[in-house]
Amino acid sequence: MAIITIVTPFNIDLEFKVADFSKRMLAWLVDIMVICAYYYLMMVVIYPLLQLETGVGTLAGLFVLTLPVMIYQLSCEIFLNGQTIGKKVLGIKVMDREGNEPSWGQYVIRWLLCIGNMVIYIMPRYLIQNPWTIIGFMVLYIPDTIVMLISAKNQRIGDLAAGTVVIDSRY
């Protein structure tokens, strides 16, 4: 069990348990399910109601389907105090290494350095056509997974670059 200790100006040490790899993975899977539900709702209910022409439909698909999914992680973490829906369900959250809430810049760095999430988040759209494509895109997660497993605080590349850590807020 990894612990991060924050020394306050009042000489009080605050200890936070670093989120386990398994909790982070489960939170990620919950986020994938939320995104799949969003895709299903949009593709089956909302998108057919719009009845758009081919050219306009492609542009609408970009803005209605893909763009919200691409910024899902970033917007959730900014507006839900360092948590996506999956992190909220599992009781974990993103925190600055000094114990503060991360800045917008730190959230953006984390988000930009997680290209694998962006690709996987748009996968439901293409998974319908060829389910085997997801296996090819899982290669994008290999560097993050290796770094998380060998770092002392289970940090992925984006966390190391942004100076953040994911903690278990229920500890």
Largest sheet: 4 strands, antiparallel
In the sheet with the most strands, the strands line up as 1-2-4-3
Query: What value does the Rg take, in angstroms?
Result: 18 Å
The strand count comes to 4
Low-confidence stretches: none
Indicate the proportion of strand residues: 5-15%
Head-to-tail CA distance between termini: 11 Å
Helical segment tally? Answer: 10
**Shape field:** elongated
Helix-strand pattern: EEHHHHEHHHHHHE
Helix content: 55-70%
Structural class estimated from helices and strands: alpha+beta
Nearest-integer average pLDDT = 83
List keywords for this structure.
171 residues; alpha+beta
Task: Sum this structure up briefly.
With 171 residues, this protein is of the alpha+beta class.
Please give a structural write-up.
With 171 residues, the chain is of the alpha+beta class. The protein has 10 helices and 4 strands; from the N terminus they run E-E-H-H-H-H-E-H-H-H-H-H-H-E. It has a 4-stranded antiparallel beta sheet with strand order 1-2-4-3. Helix 3 packs antiparallel against helix 5 (104-112). The mean pLDDT is 83.
Topology (elements, then pairings):
Elements: E1 3-7, E2 13-18, H1 21-50, H2 54-70, H3 72-79, H4 85-90, E3 92-96, H5 104-112, H6 115-121, H7 123-127, H8 133-137, H9 142-150, H10 157-162, E4 164-168
Antiparallel strand pairs: 1-2, 2-4, 3-4
Helix pairs in contact: 1-2, 3-5
